[in-house]
Amino acid sequence: MESFLPPPMLGYPSRPPSPLPPPPPPSPRPNRSRPLLVVLVTLTVALVGLVAGMAIGQRSVTVRSNAVPIVRPSDQIGGEPLDVGAIVAAVQPSVVNITVETPGGGASGTGVIISADGEVVTNAHVVEGATRVLVRLVGETEARPAILVASDTENDLALVRIDGASGLPAAVLAQPNDIQVGDDVVAIGYALDLDGGPSVTKGIVSALDRTMPVSDHVLDGLVQTDAAISSGNSGGPLVNNRGQVVGINTAVARGGLSFDANNIGFAIGLSEALPVIDALRSGTAGGPLPFLGVKIDGRSDGGEGALITEVVADSPADQAGVEVGDVVLAVNGTTVNGAGGLIAAIRDAATGDQLSLEIDRGGTRRTIDATLVERTGS
User: Fold this and answer.
1) Class of domain 8-44+82-287
2) For residue range 77-127, what is the model confidence (pLDDT) as tens digits?
3) Is 234 an annotated catalytic residue?
């Protein structure tokens, strides 16, 4: 019963057929009515800006201030420009188009080859409900049959294997923590399932370790980027300036009636993805879910952490002494980023694990240890 109230307009939309309908004035072609695959996450974004301008007639004006230091060329921060062409040449052969057949029709997305013998990682929502999986490599005209090895819906990752494959160009994966805010990145994927090769967009790493509620679960360890991510990009790679994969593109933010969201996309970072991929490969993913026994909500006072709103009787939380009104600030030394952060921390643990909860209770901080049990029922 680890649950919380998510922000509005969250969830995976219905999935698409792969073709893109033509724009008006021609009428859309038949049998292409389903929207293309995309994951939508809604964020509330507050923008505060101060804009100052000066114009005097048609003449330019130079403003000097003793309070502002003059920047010398040697003071400026610089670096080598991003060579997008070289990055694409190195990574594109490892990016594949995935088409699935489902009882309700079909869908499409992107995947990344991670082994020469045909292992492909993608998003779980790309292959959800698939009765048949087809994978087409860059430069090939025909899709190859593939099998779904395993899927982890909670972490939105899946492993597919191309039948009888060998000698395929596997992508190079970056070290999980070899990434920082401001790094140049490139997103590659089959956006809108357009004919031909994959689409390429560039941007930067906008933030790290984001935790976002999506549909009925929570994704964590996310890399936020302003590189454009569109329908069909799901499951494709986010790549650094050395051509190494740093994340699996999975979600994009959309504004609502009362707020805006622009250039906010998310990829599952490798620190989160690699253990899940190993579990998918070994068949241990999707096992029993751990249970703490609390209901939680986000804080309304601007602080970090998750607010305990209910404690289940005789649950691990109850036995450990967790109380309604407690604020969980950290789990095993890692800061809890909102209610979703606590849910993700519990989900990423295993039955029998002991969690060290740093709690604020009425202004006093304390540490409470609770041992997780297997969740039964809903």
Assistant:
1) mainly beta
2) 555 678 999 999 999 999 999 999 998 888 899 999 999 999 999 999 999
3) yes
